[in-house]
Amino acid sequence: MASRSSDKDGDSVHTASEVPLTPRTNSPDRRCSSSDTSKSTYSLTRRISSLESRRPSSPLIDIKPIEFGVLSAKKEPIQPSVLRRTYTPDDYFRKFEPQLYSLDSDSDDVDFLTDEEILSKYQLGMLHFSTQYDLLHNHLTVRVIEARDLPPPISHDGSRQDMAHSNPYVKICLLPDQKNSKQTGVKRKTQKPVFEERYTFEIPFLEAQRRTLLLTVVDFDKFSRHCVIGKVSVPLCEVDLVKGGHWWKALIPSSQNEVELGELLLSLNYLPSAGRLNVDVIRAKQLLQTDVSQGSDPFVKIQLVHGLKLVKTKKTSFLRGTIDPFYNESFSFKVPQEELENASLVFTVMPELPPASLCPLFWMEFKGHCYRFFPLNKTWAEADFYCSEFSIGRKSAKLASIHSWEENVFVYDLVNSCVPGIPADIWTGLHDHRQEGQFEWTDGSSYDYSYWDGSQPDDGVHKDPEEDCVQIWYRPTSALRSWNDNTCSRKFPFVCKIASLTIH
């Protein structure tokens, strides 16, 4: 959807409003909308026009006159009158957000079910949380503790369940206010996430008792869609807020299959004399998570479109680790008055994308480096020379260096993926050729991690020659991915490593 700017009377037009973000496309999905793209890209548009003031209509008071009659001895049957509907203040607000005041169709069913029956019926898992109201500081604390037995995510086409794990997080709000919601961090690849996160709502005690606590469990799936798994709602009037309490509640289906995308506050101003369209991107709030860390790294892209032609693109700065970014940045576009009618502005909120890493064919990427296993039996020196024959740009490959447990697991799993079921000892780039006991990597990186097996390194006690080269070895009686120093003339397969090509 696009926004067009027009000014026919020549006056300066200025608007500022906070409007909800909407997805670019919208197609039905089984559990969530497939419109959520992998870039978590959302666009909003608005028509730039003069504002009209509307005066709300005065309330009508329906007064029924009282009729007096003369008592008589003749009795006549009294016909029942048609009852007129009595309007309450809630009816007025339902006109604006009816979904906030309406009851879900499932709510009538679950009210009479126990948590065990709900869990058996819907099989969406359970959520553990607690509440506590602080009378001294007038705030409600909600602690999201953990969840368990969450269902596997739905496959991309919605036809079956994917056997991969979910990346769940929880959204917390106090109905009917959904604008000031909170979000936990995303927990990676688990059906039983542990959150242990606390959130505070500044709210008077009497007002808190009128609210309903809504906790929505959402899956940030492998297609970067935000899919609602289920929800738990607790009317706070039914709990002792001051005393507080813990609950395990079964999740029930939510009629809201996709989560809200957030809001963007803008200011638009057109100067006819200068032919300039000025745009202020002020702030955004309640954006969705875009990675598996708590928060996001969002920026706003502004595109000026004339008809179907893209004329100009500008963007704000990145704000890291927040879902409520404050920008307050101004942009100006040259738009002649005669072109204003066909001009559109497209605002896109999107995350900062990490630089793309490219590896050659048959090489595997891991954290900015490329790795390849060669099932060739070579001495340590032959293996290192063989690796150096491969290069990316001006950099040559070397025997693999390892700097963390995760990298150690990755290297050994890379070997197992090539020769499944066959135990393999492999050379690494670690050695102590120069000085006994002073280990170093052939690629010049620091020796900051090790995973020696048992009493290793032992420099080949009672052996000749000495053991100066390091391998990842397989021994049924020891750790599967541990290290051992060995004679450099022995022949083993090996893994090469090189920095990947980075594209910004």
State the total count of DSSP E strands.
Answer: 30
Strand residue percentage: 35-45%
Structural class: mainly beta
Report the C-alpha radius of gyration, rounded. 32 Å
What is the helix tally? 7
Structure summarized in a few sentences:
The chain has helices at 89-94, 98-101, 107-110, 115-122, 205-208, 380-388, 405-418, and strands at 3-4, 13-20, 22-23, 42-44, 126-134, 139-148, 168-175, 177-183, 194-202, 212-220, 226-235, 245-250, 263-271, 276-285, 298-306, 309-315, 326-334, 343-351, 356-358, 364-366, 369-378, 391-392, 395-396, 398-399, 426-431, 440-441, 469-472, 483-486, 492-499, 501-503.
Can you walk me through this structure?
The protein is mainly beta. Helices cover 10% and strands 37% of the residues. The protein has seven helices and 30 strands. The protein has helices spanning 89-94, 98-101, 107-110, 115-122, 205-208, 380-388, 405-418, and strands at residues 3-4, 13-20, 22-23, 42-44, 126-134, 139-148, 168-175, 177-183, 194-202, 212-220, 226-235, 245-250, 263-271, 276-285, 298-306, 309-315, 326-334, 343-351, 356-358, 364-366, 369-378, 391-392, 395-396, 398-399, 426-431, 440-441, 469-472, 483-486, 492-499, 501-503. Mean pLDDT is 74; it is low at 1-10, 25-76, 78-97, 99-108 and 156-162.
